[in-house]
Specification:
Organism: Streptomyces oceani
Helix content: 25-40%
Pfam families: PGM_PMM_I, PGM_PMM_II, PGM_PMM_III, PGM_PMM_IV
Cofactor: Mg(2+)
CATH class of the largest domain: Alpha Beta
Structural class: alpha/beta
Number of domains: 3
Distance between the termini: 41 Å
Number of strands: 23
CATH architecture of the largest domain: 3-Layer(aba) Sandwich
Protein name: Phosphomannomutase
Shape: globular
CATH topology of the largest domain: Alpha-D-Glucose-1,6-Bisphosphate, Chain A, domain 3
GO molecular function, one term: metal ion binding
Length: about 450
């Protein structure tokens, strides 16, 4: 029997194929998904990894075996699967391991309307059924569901373009690095016919990632994009991760733009159309995000890191937009789901609607010095965090909270220290009003962690 504790994570299923899981197990997940959701029909899509088509089809067979009709949309980005779930009103399953190496694969699950499925919203129940059926197989159901194919790419592109008007922007030259991931599938259709000169990089779909990892948050993976933007004099560069639900931006100088600055920029645009509404941000986004939201008349709400928390808070508050420093961006007009493509369209609309360069445009949203996320391997996460808490708890004028890990806030700096759920790592983010202060705080906390 497979060790499901290795592959069933907080928000998804993910592991090495076939070592950790395979097509027979995917079939059981499909059957269990239908049982837990009670779905009469579902939608299934997959990325470009070599194992994705087979796993996706096996999942569909398992679902159909429980009597559910299955719509297969084939190759798609994760946000394209969310579009299908929302527009068709069906629970969905996306086969992807995002930016993980080629041998990995996984399943992102959602209920009808792209509502998230995590441990507390059905994933634990799905795991229990798969474990129960691992020796005997899923029980027979009344009737067999039908399996059909449907192409939703054009509809997905049309929906995104209906949310952001790009027809009147000035002509822009844009380099896009798809990292051999699903951005190579979606970007040409979404941008077709717009006043954009597209310079594509690594658009060939290849789940072995021959050029670089499809994780644009790692600086090593945007070096090629930066060089191309500088060489060609493009207005900006955009990089997508493997399943194209995250986007990362570099300006006309090839300099990275903080995802927090993108969050603030998009929040300002969305609030201009929806005055006074709520915007969600997580506890490691920059101070600039809630500041900008308040300045334009919105209400910022802070939450834990992770898409299930963001989506849950968006649903609870009716928020119009949410952003994370990991470059996930969530929109109420997109069923509260994350879509890097829609965020990219907002950036293009903002840049093309004025005459200045992107560096000048985002300067107003990038106000502080930040460390970026720093990972430290530790033997005892709990003990390390406790020591950092003890040291800072003894100092006057500091505010400590534990919404997600430990956040310590002073007048001119803050840091957040969080434990990884899957590795013996502590993740540190530091921000301050100036670089010298950020460096001092960063080094002091790291000395406690790595002592």
């Amino acid at each position: 029997m497979a060790d499901l504790s290795r592959i069933v994570k907080a928000y998804d299923v993910r592991g090495v194929v076939p070592d950790d899981w395979d097509e027979p197990l995917a079939e059981l997940f499909g059957a269990a998904f239908v049982r837990v959701t009670g779905a009469e029909a579902i939608v299934v899509g997959h990325d470009m990894r070599p194992s994705s088509p087979g796993l996706s089809r096996a999942f569909g067979r398992g679902a159909a075996g429980q009597g559910a009709d299955v719509t297969e949309i084939g190759l798609c980005s994760t946000d394209q699967l969310y579009f299908a779930s929302g527009s068709l009103g069906l629970p969905g399953a996306m086969f992807t391991a995002s930016h993980n190496p080629a041998r990995y694969n996984g399943i992102k699950l959602c209920r009808s309307g792209a509502a998230p499925v995590g441990q507390e919203t059905g994933l634990a129940d799905i795991r229990r059924l798969v474990e129960e059926w691992s020796d005997t197989g899923a029980p027979a159901a009344r009737g067999q569901g039908a399996i059909a194919q449907r192409d939703v790419l054009a509809d997905y592109a049309a929906h995104l373009r209906s949310l952001v008007d790009l027809t009147a922007i000035r002509p822009l030259s844009v380099v896009v690095d798809a990292g051999n991931g699903m951005g190579g599938h979606t970007v040409p259709t979404v941008l077709d016919g717009l006043p954009i000169a597209l310079d594509p990089m690594y658009f060939e779909l290849d789940g072995t990632f021959p050029n670089h990892e499809a994780n644009p948050l790692d600086p090593d993976n945007i070096v090629d994009l930066q060089a191309r933007v500088r060489k060609t004099g493009a207005d900006l560069g955009i990089a997508f991760d493997g399943d194209a639900d995250r986007c990362f931006v570099v300006d006309e100088r090839g300099e990275p733009v903080s995802p927090s600055a993108i969050t603030a920029l998009v929040a300002a645009r969305v609030l201009a159309a929806h005055p006074g509404e709520t915007v969600i941000h997580n506890c490691i986004t920059s101070w600039s995000v809630p500041e900008v939201v308040r300045e334009v008349g919105g209400t910022p709400v802070r939450t834990r890191v992770g898409h299930s928390f963001i989506k849950g808070e968006m649903a609870a508050t009716g928020a119009v937009f949410g952003g994370e420093h990991s470059a996930h961006y969530y929109f109420r007009d997109f069923w509260n789901a994350d879509t890097g493509m829609l965020a990219a369209l907002h950036v293009l609309a903002a840049l093309g609607g004025q005459d200045g360069p992107l560096s000048a445009l985002v300067e107003r949203y990038d106000r502080y010095a930040a460390s970026g996320e720093i990972n430290s391997t530790v033997a005892d996460q709990t003990a390390c965090v406790a020591e950092v808490r003890r040291v800072h708890g003894e100092r006057a004028g500091l505010e400590l909270d534990e919404l997600d890990g430990l956040t310590v806030t002073a007048d001119d700096w803050w840091f957040n220290l969080r434990a990884s759920n899957t590795e013996p790592l502590l993740r540190l983010n530091v921000e301050a009003r100036d670089t010298a202060t950020m460096t001092r705080v960063r080094d002091e906390v790291l000395s406690l962690i790595r002592a």
